[in-house]
Amino acid sequence: RVFTERENVRGCPRTYRIGSSALSGISGVAHDKMTDKAVFTRDKVLTIHTMNPTVKKVEYAVRGPIVQRAVQIEKELKEGVKKPFTEVIKANIGDAHAMGQQPITFFRQVLALCSYPELLKDNMFPEDAKNRARRILQACGGSSIGAYSASQGIECVRQDVARYIECRDGGVPCDPDNIYLTTGASDGIVTMLKLLVCGEGPTRTGVMISIPQYPLYSAALAELAAVQVNYYLNEDKCWSMDVSELERSLSEARKYCNPKALCPNLCSCQVYQDNVYAEGCQFHSFKKVLFEMGPQYSNTVELASFHSTSKCYMGECGFRGGYMEVINMDPEVKAQLTKLVSVRLCPPVPGQALMDLVVNSPKPGEPSYNNFMKERTATLSLLAEKAKLTKEILNTVPGITCNPVQGAMYSFPKISLPEKAIKEAKALGQAPDMFYCMKMLEETGICLVPGSGFGQKEGTYHFRMTILPPTDKLKILLAKVKEFHQKFTKQYS
Ligand SMILES: Cc1ncc(COP(=O)(O)O)c(C=O)c1O
After folding, report:
1. Taking the model in full, what pTM does it have?
2. 236-285: per-residue pLDDT in tens?
3. Does the beta carbon of 436 lie inside 6 Å of ligand 1?
4. What CATH number does domain 54-100+377-492 carry, 2.40.10.120, 3.30.70.1890, 3.90.1150.10, 3.30.300.30?
5. Å from CA of 148 to ligand 1 middle
6. How many CB atoms lie within 10 A of CB 316?
7. Which whole number is the average pLDDT over 225-240?
């Protein structure tokens, strides 16, 4: 007998199993004492034991346990809990706008016009912003950015991306058909990895990633049950890549998997292409280098590169705009890629519109050009200043060694930790730099990411810190890090 929820079950046994029913999914009935009614129970189909085991292996340090604790502490502060600090400073993630970076006016004007075309009648918007908005809207279904686009992305945006790449790479040709617009760079990277992975046991796909890495790679490889093959960057040479280390890593990996791809994530992932601060340093795309190396490389090496609206001077992470360029891809695989991206219909159209503005920014002579350049330069100069400041201050702390921040938005200093602290961390089952960062968070309100989340050479410890907080706050943050490190070292020595 199956009870209805309203039936009174007085007199029924407290738990009355009626067996699993494939149709109802109900596996039992219990008696709710409070309401004196029957309550149906069912065994969960999805439990920690039955769920996809690869998902359980996924870790993403950038939003890991330290960040979860930081969010909790923020709540506690709001509730009036007394702490030795008044605010949490989040230096864990490259989220520029969250740290106060201002959006580029031209981009937001065009996006506002695209979102609410009535504004096209408004005199406060410059003519070039209106023209861009009209062009984007014309390319959208029903002239609305609320419509789905083609799965590979809006055609005129892909054409603009191709022209931008050609110009950036000194005339190396780019076919718009090789451009896929994506939901940020992350989406493109995961899609490419999905295409790559196959085989079992020693034939399982291996993917070579640099250590330290961007944790999206290890997370995606874990989810796809691919083999993560580490190669270590040389910290003593400013995190450069040694070919001998690549060769070591490759020949080791061949013993237990089938290494098929190399992710030089700090470089071929091009998301920081405008964030180059070191004097004499310049961004070179892998594609351009392949062409400089000659046709035996440029006509054969299969390369996927990724860019995004999230970083550089834009910092528009929330729009989830991005693109991927593939070259020398087997046409049959490319058809599979196109099919795969079509399953998700399309990347967000506002993100595509923003990507278009990034690759087709105001030109000299256009009304918005001067202001655009002023804002772009100001943001990049400030980041360069903060990169320098971070390295300088961190290197004044005994026990902290920081390489010059040559590009991107992060420092990754090495920290020496006392033996006693390492032992205490291990007793708690924590990585020593996790132990250190957690203590720093509790005592100072500063939220960093332990180096262990990015990978590091055995026996070395680091933390990752963004250079994004406003200069005044960054100075306070660095002073607090210095004070904490000294106190921590004293306490555990
Ligand atoms: C190296 C690298 N690649 C990709 C991404 C992800 O960027 P997106 O927001 O475009 O997905 C990040 C984000 O921090 C990154 O640091």
Report:
1. 0.89
2. 999 999 999 999 999 999 999 999 999 975 645 799 999 999 888 899 99
3. no
4. 3.90.1150.10
5. 24
6. 28
7. 95
